[in-house]
Design goal:
Blueprint lengths: L3 H7 L4 E6 L4 H7 L6 E5 L7 H10 L6 E5 L5 H9 L4 E4 L5 H11 L21 H11 L1 E6 L2 H11 L6 E4 L1 H7 L9 H17 L2 E6 L2 H10 L3 E6 H15 L5
Parallel strand pairs: 1-2, 1-8, 2-3, 3-4, 4-5, 5-6, 6-7, 7-8
Length: 253
């Protein structure tokens, strides 16, 4: 197993990804022709099943793009399942404490670092490459903790102190709401919190991640030092394209 995204992050590079929320393998296949470093299959807020994740991982076979999955919660069975079907990493929401971060890492790593169970599944070429896979998986699996609450902000340094956490990912919408600003993502206090996560990551030798909703947000994320940047989702690309065409023919969308 070789995780190209983790390799780039270790080298100090910025990686660009896209959210897959539709569950459409055709949409993923199309987007895989663009220079995107990683794709995130969202099992938290989308109707994507583990079987669908397995199909989409297969779509990326032969691609240099990294398949990642956002699970819905800190759950041993779900983390194990998405890694077994071939995901190269997981993004876990609402990681608020160092204890929760340690649980995430344990669920994603084989012993002695963790408690992940052994299986001759897709990730290990259905057992044909098991010996090779288990010798590389712990180092190559990307583990991303989402920072979405004031509690997580207060613990971010301790969360990043865990050697198994590779990225602290700001959930901008949820962070904005939990800080009491509803949908005011541009609030100066939210911006200050985001920059604080970047600084904490830089001090820990880790990467800071974020989801951006607009081109201007994408530019700002790069300027602020985020290195794991999701540039929207397949569903949003559809909305943007449809709206642009409709407005071009005089229909407000």
């Amino acid at each position: 197993m070789e995780n190209t995204t983790k390799k780039k992050l270790r080298a100090g590079e910025t990686t660009i990804g896209a959210w897959i929320s539709s569950g459409s393998s055709n949409m993923l296949d199309l987007l895989s022709h663009f220079p995107i470093d990683w794709f995130l299959f969202d099992m938290e807020h989308s109707p994507i099943s583990i079987e669908t994740v397995g199909h989409m991982v297969q779509v990326l076979n032969g691609s240099t793009a990294t398949p990642l999955v956002r699970v819905g919660e800190i759950d041993q069975a779900i983390c194990k399942a998405v890694l077994d079907v071939g995901a190269h990493g997981v993004i876990v929401p609402l990681v608020n404490t160092p204890e929760e971060a340690e649980r995430v890492v344990k669920y994603c790593k084989y012993p002695p670092r963790g408690v992940r169970g052994l299986a001759g599944a897709k990730a290990a070429d259905y057992g044909l490459g098991l010996a090779r896979y288990i010798r590389t998986a712990n180092d190559e699996t990307l583990v991303v903790a989402q920072i979405e609450t004031p509690e997580a902000l207060g613990n971010v340094e301790k969360i990043l102190a865990n050697d198994g956490i590779d990225v602290a990912f700001v959930g901008p919408s949820d962070l904005t709401m939990t800080m009491g600003f509803l949908d005011d993502r541009a609030n100066p206090k939210v911006a200050e919190a985001m920059v604080g996560v970047v600084k904490a990551c830089e001090a820990a030798g880790k990467a800071a991640g974020i989801m951006v909703a607009t081109v201007d947000e994408a530019k700002l994320a790069v300027q602020r030092g985020f290195r794991f940047i999701a540039i929207g989702s397949d569903m949003r690309y559809t909305v943007i394209g449809a709206r642009a065409f409709l407005e071009a023919v005089g229909r407000k969308a």
